[in-house]
Amino acid sequence: MREIDAIVAEYNKLKHAQISCVLATVVHVQGSSYRRAGARMLVDEFGNLTGAISGGCLEGDALRKALHAMHQQKNKLVTYDTSDENNAVIGAQLGCNGIIKVLFEAIDFENERNACELLQTASKTGEKASILIEFDLKETNLQPGTVALIYSEDKIFASAEIEQVILFEASEVIQKKRSDFLKLERNGNSCMNYIQFYEPPIKLVLVGAGNDAMILTSQAELLGWKIIIADGRPTHANTNRFSSGCQVIVTRPEDTLEKIEIDERTCFALMSHNYHYDLAVLQLLLKKTEVPYIGILGPLKKWERMKDDMDHAGIEVSSFDDDRIHAPIGLELGAETPAEIGLSILAEIQAKLTNSSAKSLKFKNAPIHERRTSEIPSI
Known about the structure:
This protein is of the alpha/beta class. The protein contains nine helices and 16 strands.
């Protein structure tokens, strides 16, 4: 389950039980940190944590700050300096060297546009959006917090009126698929606006409901991906073999796409262990979709045979198709067991969608997280 979804699920339980809670959000990082801006953690009145804002070094003090914000029912901005090795507050000291600003928002269950409700709307809608978080650089000043969920100028969920300049920047964030900051001057104070890019989870369609698909499904669900299983065998494609969170479809290969809503983050893994079934679905995907990833389970000879059969049928594999087809499927990890193969498949999909090299980080002569000037204003 993704962090946002886990937080929303926990929030609903707390709301039903009327257990007070606070949402902690990393709103700015200068230097290095285990988590980047946008990381969240929900804290309830008993000290239970859902999500994380660091690798463990901040959570202890963050719990205390959260409870303080809860008792005061007031949003608070707190700055942590992990570059100070003598800072006893940090505790674990993971070797980070950065300044981290965390916003603590006391959640009002009566407010239908509170921070968690806006996150819930984003999760349910399943569309690209901008999440607007406002904070004042003077920690003693009023901290607005998570104030809006913006899809477009005509589709906004907000607790206050949103300025036109912010709406324009939110649109740019969605267009570029990249979070950004906007600094505004209000009444002599510098108000920061962290505009976080939100996108729906990866949708993974497994063509084939064999035992290996069951293992891959479990692994993908841990990542918070949405899973769809399609197979022509009702003995295999049934809800008894897969979790309730999966969509299971019994279908002929030529009808596979009829019950699947495809978006730009939909990926396919052809693993039915039936050559003709996989081939039929592959032809369908090439003719009717532009999905970014099509993986084909099996040896290279299988893919070469598929290309020959499609060539004889007059179906051309374009350079665009060649870029999105991965056959054999997965990264070279020395995988042997179904779980290891599943790991190599999911890693390859992640690398493809994030346009990453999939090389060892030890060979990267740059920060682990890409930093753009526009995303780290000097504050």
